[in-house]
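User: Structure with pyridoxal-5'-phosphate, tokens only please.
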Amino acid sequence: MLDINKIRAEFPILNQKVNGKPLVYFDNGATSQKPQVVIDAIVDYYSRYNANIHRGVHTLSQLATDAYEEARLKIQRHFNAKHNYEIIFTSGTTEGINLVANGFAALLKKDDEIIVSALEHHSNIVPWQMLCEHTGAKLLVIPMNYDGELLMDEYEKLLSDKTKLVVCNHISNGLGTINPIEFIIEKAHKAGAAVLIDGAQACPHLKPDVQALNVDFYVTSAHKMCGPTGVGMLYGKEEWLRKLPPYKGGGEMIATVTFEKTTYADLPHKFEAGTPNICGGIAFGTAIDYMNEVGFDNIASYERELLEYGTKKLLELEGIEIYGTKDLNKKASVISFNFKGIHPYDVGTIIDKLGIAVRTGHHCAQPIMDFYKIPGTIRASFAFYNTKEEIDLMIEALKKAQMMLG
Ligand SMILES: *Cc1c(COP(=O)(O)O)cnc(C)c1O
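Assistant:
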């Protein structure tokens, strides 16, 4: 069980008023808040041992290198990767996807096929469109139903020996749907295709095991799981990382450089050109430790309570439509909704004045909004530091907004 008061006290940002009202932060799907230990890790790095890594023989450089590589090990253990060099530090999910898409440019030919899902974030659509433009490969889309679930029988029909890559998110940021990635991965492998899973929205809620999933690539961002912005990780199976060419050229990623020929460094450095976000990587490790201390089983059961309570309370409101599955077992603590005849942006603006932070708009997932023929939704996404009392405050604020706009 979670000691919610203790947890909330660990997040300094939560204890404040916004627009004169206690802050209710329900925009965790966009970015999470940071516990004091993560803030401290950042301050500690810059106050005590800031230095460039993998380069200097001096003491601070050694300390920084050790801390950065220790963070890589924490990430490796967390995701259960087989080797530490299968963990590539990136600037976030978006960069991880672009890295793999760039690498596949060398491996694809005209009329090869890439399958994406209808539920993707733009960052898991656009890099593949760019790759298709570049190579002449085709992009196919797994369709969804009105409940926001991907149609697996349609997916199976799309697979063929032309399929080279299947990409899908683990949990949809637009609707909260938990996608059947085990099935998706197994069927893709049977067809001889590689799989990339976008875990940005899943990692705050659950602990993926990349070996059990048998996934080829898994990407995520630190900032949605209590870590800082500007850092993330790409997991890639060793065989795939060896096959892909480097993404960026520069320092740190080379073995030898002459003007005639450069040879690349071994994994993981082959993909880590330039001075990385050293501090961010270290604090990412701290965030992972923190979340594991809270415990992912505790997080899952508590967030499930919030999801059930929030769904029930919202459904009592007049004119509400909640998008996505009604089966809460297939959903993370994300609720996307609208009120009949009212623009989501107007609701968001009014409840912000009442201290409630939600996301409104297309959530970087415009194809989902087009499917429902709506301009966007109001999205309340809960984290383990939120409470039922905060949900009550949101409900009161929504009632006021309805009165003003209705
Ligand atoms: C947030 C998010 C992204 C993008 O993450 P960045 O940190 O902005 O790179 C991609 N996919 C999903 C599902 C997300 O929720």
